[in-house]
Design goal:
This protein has 195 residues and is of the alpha+beta class. 24% of the residues lie in helices and 16% in strands. The chain has a 4-stranded antiparallel sheet, with helices on both faces. A 3-stranded antiparallel sheet has the order 1-2-3, with no helix packed on it. Keywords: Isomerase, Rotamase.
Length: 195
C-alpha cells in the first residue's frame, strides 16, 4: 500500500521505511535511492508527527531478563534548542527555539506526565530524539543516540557510556521513577528508569 504526502507529510516520492538492523523508521526516496534518518526538506512536520504516532510507534516490552551487572535501562523525552549540539531532529530539520522556550516545553511535558500521561506516549510525538519511534525507550535505539553516545548492550548502559549529566540522573532514579529536567549538550531531557 502506497502512502501519499497527504498522509505522511513527506515531499513527493519519499516514503517511511523501517530499518531491519536498527528496527527504526527512516526516510527513503526510491527514485533517487536517497535514505536518511532525518525527514527531508519540505516535510510537513505536523502531518509526519501524526503519521509516525499512528503507524510507527511501538512499545518495547520488558526484555524478560535482568539487567547486566552495573547496567540500567531507561527511556527519555528530549527537547532540543538552537544551542543544542545538533539543533535538528526527525520533527524539525532546523530547531530555532531558545533554551527558555525548550525549558517551557519540557516543563509542560513533565506536568502532563504528573497528571497521568506516560513518558512513552509523549516521547512518541514530542521527543526530538530518534528514540521517539520507541516511546523514548533506549532499548532498540541505534548506538548513535542524538549524540548521547550510547555504547551499552541492547539499551543497557553503565557509567561512562552516556553524557555524564544524563547518566548521573538515570542512575539516581529508582525503577519507574521520572527525573527532574536534565540539561546536556544534546538538549533538555526527562528520563524514566525502566530497569
Amino acid at each position: 500500500m502506497s502512502t501519499t504526502q497527504e498522509e505522511n507529510g513527506l515531499p513527493e516520492g519519499w516514503q517511511v521505511r523501517r530499518s531491519n538492523t536498527k528496527n527504526l523508521p527512516y526516510y527513503f526516496n526510491p527514485a533517487t535511492k536517497d535514505s536518511r534518518w532525518e525527514p527531508p526538506a519540505g516535510t510537513d512536520t505536523e502531518k509526519l508527527k501524526l503519521y509516525m504516532a499512528k503507524f510507527h510507534s511501538s512499545k518495547v516490552p520488558s526484555s524478560g531478563v535482568s539487567a547486566p551487572e552495573g547496567k540500567i535501562r531507561a527511556a527519555h523525552l528530549l527537547v532540543k534548542h538552537r544551542d543544542s549540539r545538533r539543533p535538528a531532529s526527525w520533527r524539525e530539520p532546523k530547531i530555532t527555539r531558545s533554551f527558555q522556550d525548550a525549558q517551557g516545553l519540557i516543563e509542560g511535558y513533565r506536568e502532563r506526565i504528573h497528571n497521568g500521561e506516560s513518558l512513552s506516549e509523549l516521547a512518541t510525538t514530542e521527543s526530538d530524539c530518534s528514540s521517539a519511534s520507541k516511546g523514548g525507550d533506549l532499548w532498540a535505539t541505534p548506538l548513535h543516540l542524538d549524540e548521547l553516545t550510547l555504547t551499552g548492550h541492547r539499551g543497557y548502559f553503565s557509567r561512562g557510556d552516556m553524557q555524564k549529566e544524563f547518566e548521573d540522573a538515570a542512575f539516581n532514579l529508582q525503577k519507574g521513577e521520572l527525573s527532574d529536567i536534565v540539561a546536556t549538550a544534546s538538549g533538555l531531557h526527562l528520563i524514566q528508569r525502566l530497569e
